[in-house]
Amino acid sequence: MRKVRFHRYGGAEVLRLDEVAAPVPGAGEILVRTEAVGVSLMLLKQLRGAGQPPLPGSPGGGFVGRIAALGAGVTGYRVGERVGGVAAEAYAEQLLASPLTLTPVPEKVSAADALGVVHGGLVALAALRVGGPVAGASVLVTNAAGGVGHLAVQLAKELGAERVVAAAGSPAKAAFLRELGADEVVGYQDADWGAPVDLVLEGVGGEVLTRAHAALAPFGRLVALAGHGGTLDAGAVLGSMTTVTGLSMGQLARHRPELVEEVRAQLWQLLAAGRLRPVSTVLPLERAAQAAALLERRANLGKVVLGVAP
Ligand SMILES: NC(=O)c1ccc[n+]([C@@H]2O[C@H](COP(=O)([O-])OP(=O)(O)OC[C@H]3O[C@@H](n4cnc5c(N)ncnc54)[C@H](OP(=O)(O)O)[C@@H]3O)[C@@H](O)[C@H]2O)c1
User: Fold this and answer.
1) Closest C-alpha to ligand 1, atom 11
2) Going from the N-terminus, what domains does the chain have, and what CATH number goes with each?
3) I want to staple 4 with a disulfide (CB 3.0 to 4.6 A). Which of 94, 197, 274, 288 is the partner?
């Protein structure tokens, strides 16, 4: 089968399409025939050697596909079922996944839209639920043109936000976000981010986290989503009486599975009703390097997806 790997560390250009043996599911594993894989900043980190992955390296990530075989002891799933999940080695025609990461995917949804919902919408809506109430609120979304952010902008409007401010890195992204319903768009370098907001969904980390917290009105709420670090001063939190919370989909699934289930059902309903529009650029598996380069150049509008012929 075909699998994307890297034989040295570097940028997007190190990705190669290799012919390898198909994986065989061990006890507790599920073999999935891949339909689509999501490309995110995590890939660029892996390529640069973060965590020193052994070479050849096989990128991991979120996927949508169909179950091809069940390893010994796996229950609750059947061959042929359509699922989304996360795999340690995902950029391939077939992959191995743990049942713990899997979620059912409806039949009538395109693989790219399903990927958008499972790996972007779920995070966006869960963050809005954790940080809510949203109705009547002003909401700032950072990393707004990405896979999570462009759906967060739409969902905030859908939940009745009065004003949605989107932060993104280029004029093309600004136009994209206005088209999706953002009331205001700000650049990371802009001195003025407008009037203070009630709620921030923070998807960048680092200095942007600090700046986004400063954009909150007194008693405002910030949900930190980015796994890229950042610092907040306790005095700034105290003085503004703001609430800061994190979002980890893993923790939420472990401790609040009913909330994840509710959010997932709401997303599929919104999608079916045409009230949620996942946007993605889909490239075939053999163009993984170009897909990664889109992110490297920060030229993505919405999610970057590798489509794998079923
Ligand atoms: N907590 C959770 O459970 C969870 C789950 C999934 C994702 N996340 C997090 O949610 C955030 C959004 O995820 P995503 O998949 O939508 O976005 P992503 O694909 O990880 O982000 C892509 C965007 O990041 C921005 N960016 C910032 N620094 C960059 C750099 N050095 N190089 C390239 N691009 C850079 C660019 O937008 P601009 O050009 O506009 O700056 C780029 O378009 C991420 O921080 C991700 O880690 C969290």
Assistant:
1) 203
2) 2-105+279-307 (3.90.180.10), 116-252 (3.40.50.720)
3) 288
